[in-house]
Write a structure and sequence with these properties.
The chain has a seven-stranded antiparallel sheet with strand order 1-7-6-5-4-3-2, with helices on one face. It is elongated, with a radius of gyration of 20 Å. The protein has one domain (27-174): START domain (Alpha-D-Glucose-1,6-Bisphosphate, Chain A, domain 4), CATH 3.30.530. The chain has helices spanning 2-22, 41-48, 51-54, 144-150, 153-174, and strands at residues 28-37, 68-72, 81-86, 90-100, 104-110, 116-126, 129-139. It has 176 residues and is an alpha+beta fold.
Length: 176
């Protein structure tokens, strides 16, 4: 009987330790990737300022050809909205919150039960081209499981952001 009590006590102490450590982990999670595109900001901006154009370079749209999209609001800029439904990626939406021509687009991402996040596209001149920085920001709140998961976000979406930026580069440069 004593080994079972020790095992139960050890399990409880481990759980308490994991929860305590979770609250020392960052609450704010940021993932960022950048790419220099050999095209002016005016050629890149329309691709990030329109949910309809997003799918031309999105790393996710290509992975699920059966994904369904619904668009609402204006075609581009503030208020432009896209909702998706997919067997692989479930459902969600994105809506442009801010749009500054040729420099900045801020998007609210809603992943349903999985939470919300903000994606930002920053465009800056870089020689004859444009440096695009794609940021993902979310807040894990006081949920210890989400805080532990926050440690994995860079691995989970970093490669997707790199693939998306590479595709954005191809699409923008082909449009010249």
């Amino acid at each position: 009987m004593r080994p079972l009590i020790r095992l139960a006590l050890g399990t409880v102490l481990l759980a308490i330790l994991l929860v305590a450590v979770a609250f020392a982990l960052p609450q704010e999670i940021t993932v960022a990737r950048s790419k220099v595109i050999n095209a002016p900001e005016s050629d890149v901006f329309p691709l990030v300022n329109s949910p309809k154009r997003f799918n031309e370079w999105s790393p996710w749209a290509a992975r699920d050809p059966e994904m369904k999209f619904t668009f609402s609001g204006p075609a581009e800029g503030k208020g432009a909205r896209m909702e998706w439904s997919s067997d692989e990626f479930e459902t969600g939406s994105q809506e442009i919150l801010e749009s500054r021509p040729n420099s900045h687009v801020k998007v609210k991402l809603d992943f349903g039960d999985m939470g919300n996040a903000i994606a930002t596209y920053q465009l800056r001149p870089d020689g004859a081209g444009t440096k695009v920085v794609w940021l993902f920001e979310t807040n894990t709140g006081n949920n210890p499981i989400k805080r532990w998961m926050g440690l994995m976000f860079d691995r989970w979406i970093g490669k997707d952001y790199e693939m998306g930026l590479e595709k954005l580069k191809q699409v923008a440069e082909a449009g010249q």
